[in-house]
Amino acid sequence: MQNAIDIHAISEKIQQQAPLVDRVFSEMDRVIVGQRYMVERMLIGLICGGHILLEGVPGLAKTLTVSTLARILQASFKRIQFTPDLLPADLTGTLIYNPQDGAFIPKMGPVFANLVLADEINRAPAKVQSALLECMQERQVTIGDETYGLEDPFLVMATQNPIEQEGTYPLPEAQVDRFMLKVKVTYPSRQDERMILDRMASGGDIEVQHALSVDQVLQLREVVEMVYIDDKIKDYIVDLVHATRFPEQMGLNEIAPLIEHGASPRATIFLVRAARAHAFLRQRAYVTPEDVKAIGADVLRHRVVASYEAEAEEVDSERIVQQLFDHVEVP
Hints:
Blueprint: H1 2-31, H2 36-48, E1 51-55, H3 62-72, E2 73-74, E3 77-81, H4 88-92, E4 93-98, E5 103-108, E6 115-119, H5 126-138, E7 140-143, E8 146-149, E9 155-160, H6 173-176, E10 179-184, H7 190-200, E11 212-213, H8 214-226, H9 231-245, E12 259-261, H10 265-281, H11 289-300, E13 305-306, H12 308-312, H13 317-327
């Protein structure tokens, strides 16, 4: 009975916040044609405070989608174009010498914003990657001897091109694991592309209205954290992540040779958060196995490392994750 009362109260709070989310989707639809999957994942990342890696070929509106979301939010936004000659100081900031009083004054870098677009992140060298790693995980920046906290919410949305490898640096596993979701952006349908042609051919900017403030984002987070998740769903999530590490124990002997490394405990935490947010966007006060399945590939695809044997058989992590969902028992 207590659970029933709680679910009802949570459901009421979700209904109160629903118009805010609808307004964001409505404003995004004025600029972005289709790509509902990408927009929804970006909103999940924003609500959960999880960083997002967008992977897709050039021209699929990845950068446009992030910049449009920033315009809809009443929040600070910075875009960093990653290049091979980028330095850590270009990202985090540096100390500037003031000759008048002989002191060094900190000049804050572009990471000091609510929403940071790291465009073509895999073009930056290792030192820049490690500087961004501290920002993403610790939510702080060290300039000289001083440490400065980043704004809240702080969200890195990074893009990378999967087909052009010349002049790129593979992201370290430690950094890839910091991204809550890896979203694969695909080509639009023929119908959507015809709409894109009509909407974008003029070349003018499409105006959008502010629909969400920073305080409202923090309110949404509080409501999402209330979404009920049953112990059986929690066990299901743990079984999924455990199966990426020890597939034999889950009776998945045929998958075992295909996995080099499984997902970290961070995957378990992110999967719970993302499933709650997924349920919230559907105005439900509780998580179902379908929420876990819908968001699971985005949480796990970049955390499961395929073995050489898998590569020889042309099996990628995407197919391995799909097999896990097909075989792990659903509550």
